[in-house]
Structure formats: structure tokens, C-alpha cells
Amino acid sequence: MIGPSLPTHLHEWLGMARSLCLTVHVLGILCFVYIVAKRLVPLVRAERDLRFDHPLTRMGRVFKFWLGQWRHPRYKFAGTIHILIFSGFILLAARAFFVLIVGVNQDFVMPGLSGRVGQLYDIVTDYAATVVFLCMVIATVRRLVFKPARYAVPAKYGKGRTADAIFLLGLIAILMVADSLFAASHSLQGRPAEELAILSLPWMLQIALASSSLVTISASGFAAYLIHELAFYFLLCYRPFGIQFHVETSLFSIYFAKLERGTLKPVRWGISDEHLDQVKSFGVKRFEDFTWKHMLDFYSCADCGRCADNCPANAAGRPLAPRFLTIKARDYAFQHYPVFGRANNSKPLIGNVYSEDEIWSCTTCGACEEECPLLIEYIDKLVDLRRGMIDDGNVPQSLQRPMKALESRGNPYGKLEKKRGDWTKSPEFRNNCNVKILDGKRNADTLYFVDSITSYDDRMQSIGRSTSRILDHIGEDFGVLGPAEKDSGHDVRRFGEEMLFLALRDHNIDAVKASGAKRIVTADPHAYNALRHDYKDVPPVEHISQVMAREVKAGKIRFTQIANEEKVFVYHDPCYLGRHNQVYDDPRTVLDAIPGLKRIEMTRSRDRSFCCGGGGLMLFYEPKEEQRMGVLRVRMAAEAGANVIVTACPFCLVNLEDAVKVTGMEGKMSVIDLTELVDQYIMRESCAETQKLEQTATCGG
Amino acid sequence: MEILVCVRRVPDTSENEIALNIEGNDIERDELVYSVNEADNYAVEEALQIRDQFGGTVTVVTVGGQDDEEVLRRELAMGANKAVLLSDDVFSGSDGRGVATILKEFVQKGHYDLILTGVQAEDGAAQVGGMLAAMLDYPFASLVNSIAAENDKLIVSREIEGGNKEVNEIELPCVLAIQTGINEPRYVGMRGIRQVASVPIPTLGAGDLGVNPATVGERVAKVKRVDYFVPTLGNGAEMLHGSREENAEKIIELVAAKGGLK
Questions:
Q1: A395–chain B nearest CA distance, Å
Q2: Mean pLDDT, chain A, whole residue set
Q3: A239 and A127 housed in the same domain
Q4: A553, A583, A599 — which closes off a domain?
Q5: Whether the Cβ atoms of residue A550 and residue A476 lie closer than 8 Å to each other
Q6: If interface means Cβ-Cβ distance under 8 Å, which residues of chain A face chain B?
Q7: Are residue A227 and residue A291 in the same domain, yes or no?
Q8: Based on the domain organization, do A432 and A546 belong to the same domain?
Q9: Rounded CA separation B5/A399 (Å)
Q10: Range with the poorest average pLDDT among A152-156, A204-208, A287-291
């Protein structure tokens, strides 16, 4: 029996199957459009989010973080692999498009890719396909053999996703092989054969096929074409079901990403503080209360685990990992907004998707956001979830008392307002530094905003006194608000109590304005962040470390030689000074100006600093955890070889000093605030000042 | 179920520095901040939970002046359906019995299945709940730390010495004095209070309630405060001087001896 003879040339094969190819194209694209449309349904029902401003800045960020893959090298190996795959995909995009069109029109040539440019492009893409293929092999081995810890899924968060990952890697590998085989077959159609990029996958396949008959070559090419087409559309339609959806969504996630650090989203976009009373429900209670951008984030997460890997709450064994905050929301979205069928009734998120402890566990340190290659936001979502819980009255008992005290007394301790400035009144301190209380009768150029912990906590008052002496030394005309100051409300806001925050903020804004001060200085990074980002219409604000660095550079602050040579100092970056406000160098400049000071760095420093345990209301929260964050941090300092931790935040000082006690490292490790250290070693020149110094020494600084 | 909760406004002990006035017969009240008596707040939360489970309404009531309206508003913000202020010049200076008399008249104006009070006011004597029950001839249980409903009865457990529980069956209507810790009261923020800022709170006086002025007020009070004093610091503190481990063990022993650990 002799059947109809098979066509010899690849384009004949393709010509024969043109209608099949066209059908697959149309079906594939329709399918994809349908799935994406279904995925967009919750985004349409979501809360609004105003992200259409600053198009140029946003485009710049797309170039940096999307096209430039800026954050990927933070994890060297995985990052490199990703950059290779990403650039491979970008390079192959035109080729994939070309290949798909060829099924319909065999004579199609990509515009701009004819002649020598086309030849060059072919060579580049031959290698690109090879590199992507190799990356798939490496990634598979990595997943199966080396199993990096950050991909593991703890039982409480559901099943592992290795199988899915391998399946996707396999599909891409198939796509690359099919593409290469097609290229090889294509190159062997004429005599002599087209030259392919040496040592590339198509080149190797070309050698393997070279001795076969033209029919076999063309048949293989045709098969490769069909496999490529099917794999391409399968991937396209499968990606919106899992972690690979980021291939489509990441560009938008990055374009619409939050621009300003240290800020919080408003309760509702487009509703001013004055109109908040009209908002029926605060925060996120159901999935649809998230903004569309936050939902887009859920889709974009590639489950790389970098956020959780850097999350101090996760490291301390608290029931929170940012990664699963996203993954659980995405699972919820997929389940409640299915591709086939109607959307289900939504359930409250707390109790069904998230636990209360999970949401309270976050210190808003920002390590997750600093790390995410796709700029996914976590703090805003957590704060929104907290706003929802506060609105429902669902607040841990341990937080209710300090919140009530903040409402009635303006500080979380329930201490009397009139005693807020008492730290300035101790006779020893008053003798060498007279701090003005700006009560309307007296005024000053600079306002030192002290905030609650430094005002009332016996230990932290030392920061207040040191800061004052430093301001005094550099000849600053300054004062404090005293009883007129209330808590900055920084962490009240981050715990979701927006109305209480607004009351505190409005009070403080009035008090600051009444003081007539032209600028504000604070030694508390939380107050600094609040004044800088949460307050409106207040004079410019600086952290004391910025002031000190400037004065050190100007020669106004000089230091005496450090006496103890056994001391090895390490600087711990407070989250709200470092990550949220990018002040990394100023404190280090000040430290390095002290002659004889030996300073080292911890592995986790600067933008990878590790939270001390959290400030503000977090001091009152009783977390479920295996370990204190502070303890982990103190151990990191010890491992680095330091015996003095310098920090620049009263909350860090509280948490780290406690941690030193908990770890039993008293005597071996000490913690000091930057202002205290500067106050100790500052060179006081005038006679009067030397006298003051002596008195300072007797009162213990 | 129709539930009435009797609440009281007290100086918040955690947010005030309590000091005696110059005469020594009262505390200095100029700069005090007030809140709902803690046990009363637990009682309101318990009432809200019972209501949410079985339906009905929760009414909160207090005997006092216009200043006391703030605690009623806080409880409205928490979720109570109604609030009533019992206020009249003739009420002032009433002792526990006087307050119970006023409340009794109010209770008899309505139809309440369950009346809750806090076990004790922070500045009080833990007497109004019991007296109110006696005047109404209702069954009474105090130190209640759990409530479960069963047909027309309640199963309540009471805290007894050493942290143990005693379980009782009690018929409705009844009066229960609620112990702190029975639940986790919900948070009331400024937003909640602002939302109920315009809810009217009726004020009822002696005439509205049918209280005989001769039975209440300072004149007929049989218990009168004559003095206030701050206890002198004693030598009760025991300093532990062992190693960390020894001290930890000693503390466990001491706490266990007082019934704090099982």
C-alpha cells in the first residue's frame, strides 16, 4: 500500500496545516483573553486606587525594576538565573511571534529583521533559546536536589508547589527545544544549510538532523512547530492559574507600584480626612475591600520567597510570612472568582483566610517590600486589614489599654500630660542644659520633638538629655513642646487606628505651629517618619543623626579619642531611619568621626537591617513567637564580632537592651544610642562647657 | 432576650495618679480621666454576645450626672441598642442601697430577662447587684465568669477561691454580677464614638421613675464615706537573691502556692 507521498519541504507541511495553525492561534488567543477577563473581574469590583500620576517616574521604574531586573542580584544565584531567563524571553519575543505567524503565512518576514539584522537576531536568539533551556535545567535541579529553604511551604500554609514549578519549567524547556528544532529544520531546507550559532541548541539539533532525509527534517520541523504552538498557547493560558502569571502582570505591578517610601495609603483613595466620617466601613474586611492594585500584586507574586526570607516576624516564628499573605489571597481570588462559573459570596478574610495574630505580627519594618523584585506592597495591605479589625472592635486586649490611654492622655502609658516635660527638670541636667518649654511665652527656631517613649521612659529620657546637650553644644536655639506635645501617633496609624492618629496629629500640628519653630529635630525615627510623611504643613524635619553628621562635616562637632580599645562597635539601622527614609550614611559618618572607634558591619545592615522587634504599640503587643526578634539581632551582632551595638532609635534601644538580658549577654554586649555615644565623646571646648561635662559625668550622662 | 446592663463611670486607675485632697476625705479629682468601670465593660460585652446569639436588645443604664453620659456613649459605640441616664439632684450622695433603689424602679418600668452588673466598681463596694436582685426578688449570682443559655435557664459558672469554678443553674429573670476576664471586650475607637455622637440618650429623673425622694440621696444614706487613706508602705516585698534558675523556681513555687499555677 502506498499512501499519498509526504511533502518534502517544511513550508509545504506548514501550508498543508495552515487552517489547523490558524484555529489553534484563534482558540489560544480567545482562551487567554477570556481567562484574563475573568481574572480582571475582582479588580473591577475592588476599591479604587489612584496610581495614574507621575507617568515618567513610573516608566523610569519600569526600566529599572522590570527591564533592568534591579533587585534580582540581591540573591546572586537565583537572581542571575532569572535575569538570564528574563532577557532570553525578551529577546525571543519577536522570534516567537514570527514563528507563530509562519504557520499562517510561510513567507512572513518580521519587519526590521530582514537581511543582516535578521541574521544577527537569529544568532542572538539561537543562544537565547539555549541559555533559557539551560536555565530550566539548572532551575529544575535546584528545585529537586538543592531545595532552597525559602521555597519550602510550612504545613500550616498549605501544600508545597514544587510539582507545579517543575511542570512549568518543563513546559518552557519544551518550548525552547521545539523552537530550536524548528530553527534547525528551517535552516536545513536549502542547500547549503543556513549557518546557525555555533554550540547553540539549534546548532546541535542541526548537526543531529543533517544526515536525515529532507522529508524527515521537514516532518520534524513541522512536529516541532505544532509542539511549539501548542506549548506556547498552553503556557499562555495556564500562567494565569499560578505563579507564572507574573510574566504578564509584573510590568503593570511595577508601573503602578507605590512611589513614596514611609507613607501609608489613605483609608479610602479620594476621600479626605475631613470626610472620613462618611465612610461606612474602614479598612479591608472582605477580599473586595482591597484596592485593584493590591489584587494585581496578588496575581504578580512569583512565590520566590524573598520577602519571607527577610521577614523578622517569620524568622522569630511569629505566625506571619508576607509570601503567604499574598499566596493565600491569590488562592482565595482564584477560588471565589473562578475562571469557569460565577463568583462566590465573599467571606470575611479574618478567620477564613488570615488569623488575627498573623495580621498583628507585622512590625511594618519594610524588609519584605525592600526585597520584592516586583515591588509588591505589604505594609499598606496589613494596615488596611488592621483598620478593618479595629473597625470591628477586634483588637487584642493588650493593645486596648495603651490605645485608650493615647486617647485620653496622649501617650500609651497613661501618664499625666503635665509630666511630659519632666525629664528636662532633673537638677543635674538643668545645671548644664536648660531646655526651653515652648509654651507660647518662650519660642525657639528649632523644635525638638521628643515623643512619648523618650519623654516618659526612665531609660530613654537619657536620649532626650543627650540630644538636648548636643543641640546645645552646636549652638542651636531649640526647645520642646512639653505638655503640649502628644504622641506622634506613628504606630497608632500603623496599627490601624486612623481616627485616633488623626486626633493626635491634628493636636500636634496645632502645637507645632503655635510654637513658631522654623524646623524640627527628633531623635525618634518613628516620630521622624510621622512628621515627614504622615503630617501636613509642618516645618522641615530632620533626625538628629542628620544634624550631627552635618555638624561633624562642618567641624562644629569634634570628638575626644575613644579610650577603650577592646570595644568593637556595630551600627544597627533602625527600620524607620534606614529603609523607610534612606538615612544610612549619616549615623555611620558620625561614628567614624570618633577617633579610635573600631566599627564593623553586620551581614544584615543598611537596607537589609533586621528589625529589633518593633516600636510604638508593638511594645505592648504580646506576640506568639518562638524567639524575640531582638534576641536574633543581638546574636547577629555577636556573630559579627561586636560588643557594642549603636542604634539611633529609642525602640531599638529598649528591644535590644532587653534582648541582651534575655540572652544572658550582660557584660559581654552593650547597647547605646548614637546620641548617648556622641554626648560621651564630644569635645567640649569652652571653659563653661568643660565644667558642664564634668557635671554630666557625675549625673551619668 | 432583653438585657439590661448597669454601668458606672470611674476614674481610670491606670491613667491617673490618685492623690488625696487637702481635706483628706476624697481624692483629687481635677485632672482625672474617667472610663467605664472595667467589670461593667465585660458585662456589656457579655450582653452583646448573648444578644448576637439569641437576639433581643441590650440596654445600658447608669445613675449619675451629665458627665456620665460619656460612658453610655462608649457602650453604645460598642454595640448596645439603647442607653438611659438616671439623673436627678435628689439621687446625689446615694449609698449602694439608694442606687439599687433607683435601678429597681427603672427595671420595673421595662421587661428585662437578664440584668448584668460588673462584679464591683473600682471605687465601689460590690453591693448594688446583690441589693438590686433582693429588691426585685430575682435570683442572683456574683463573680460570674461564664454564661450559657439552656431553655429558659442559664448555666453560669462562678469564680471561687483559688481560681476554681462552680457551675450553677439559674432561672430567668435574674441578676448576674460579672467578673472580669469572662470574655475579651471589643475595642471602641474614636470613630465608633463619633458615629453615636448624635444618638439621643434619654434622662430619667425621680419623677419619671417613680422613685420616692425620701428613699434615696445623701440624707438617707446609711453608709457614709468618712475618710480616705493611702496605706503606708510595708515590708511585704520579698527579695529573691538566688541565681536566675533558682529565682525562677522560687517564683513558680510562690505563684503556685497562691493558686496561680496548676
A1: 6
A2: 92
A3: yes
A4: A553
A5: no
A6: 276-277, 282, 390-395, 397, 399-401, 403-405, 407-409, 414, 416, 418, 497-500, 503, 664
A7: no
A8: yes
A9: 25
A10: A152-156
Grid cell 570628638 is found at A559
What CATH number is associated with residue A353?
Answer: 1.10.1060
Global ipTM: 0.88
A256 within some domain: no
Q: How far apart are CA A417 and CA A411, in angstroms?
A: 8
Which residues sit opposite A614 in a β-bridge? none
Of A483, A518, A553, the residue that ends a domain is: A553
Query: Is the overall model pTM greater than 0.90, yes or no?
Result: yes
Determine the Cα–Cα distance for residues A488 and A617; give it in Å rounded to an integer: 12
Edge-to-edge strands, sheet with A670-673: A598-600, A568-571, A644-647, A670-673
The CATH number of whichever domain residue A449 belongs to comes to 1.20.1050
For the cut 60, the answer to whether the pLDDT of residue A692 exceeds it is no
C-beta atoms of B15 and A418 within 8 A = no
Residue A569, strand partner residues: A599, A644
Same domain as A426, residue A346: no
pLDDT at B188 over 60: yes
Work out whether strand B2-6 and strand B114-118 pair parallel, antiparallel, or are unpaired. parallel
CB-based contact (8 Å) between B237 and chain A? no
SS3 content of chain A, % helix, strand, coil (to 5): 60, 5, 35
A500 interaction partners in chain B (CB closer than 8 Å): 189-190
SS3 B171: strand
Residue A47 · residue A268 · CB < 8 Å: yes
- Cα dihedral sign, A691-A695-A696-A697: positive
Q: Do B191 and A401 touch (CB under 8 A)?
A: no
Report the 10 Å Cβ neighbour count for A416: 18
Which residue type occupies A550?
R
Same domain, A574 and A548: no
Q: Are A543 and A526 in contact (CB under 8 A)?
A: no
Do A537 and A588 fall within a single domain? no
Q: Of A397, A405, A418, which is closest to B184 when you measure between CB atoms?
A: A397
Q: Are residues A281 and A337 in the same domain?
A: yes
- Asked if residues B80 and B199 have their Cβ atoms less than 8 Å apart, the reply is no
Say if A255 falls within a structural domain: no
Pairwise CA distance, residues A451 & A523, whole Å: 9
Q: Is residue A636 part of a domain?
A: yes
* DSSP β-ladder status, A568-571 and A644-647: parallel
> What pLDDT does A119 receive?
87
In chain A, the number of structural domains is 4
Nearest residue, CB atoms, A277 vs list B79, B184, B194 = B194
Q: Where are the alpha helices (DSSP H) in A103-161?
A: 115-141
One-letter amino acid at A575 equals C
CB A221 within 8 A of CB A17: no
A73 contacts: CB under 8 Å, gap ≥ 6: A79, A80, A83
Torsion of CA A151, A153, A159, A160, to 10 degrees: 20
Domain contains A320: yes
Q: Do A51 and A87 sit in the same domain of this protein?
A: yes
CB burial of residue B119 (10 Å; 0-12, 13-18, 19+): buried
Q: Which domain holds residue A606?
A: 568-699
Out of B12, B184, B189, whose CB is closest to A500? Answer: B189
Output A48 or B124, whichever has higher pLDDT.
A48
Chain A touched by B195 (CB under 8 Å): yes
Residues of chain A with pLDDT > 70: what percent? 97
Instruction: Give the pLDDT score at A3.
Output: 44
Answer whether CATH 3.20.180.20 is correct for domain B2-235: no
Chain-centre distance for alpha carbon A226: 42
Distances (CA, A) of A209 to A131, A181, A183, A184, A473: 21, 9, 11, 8, 83
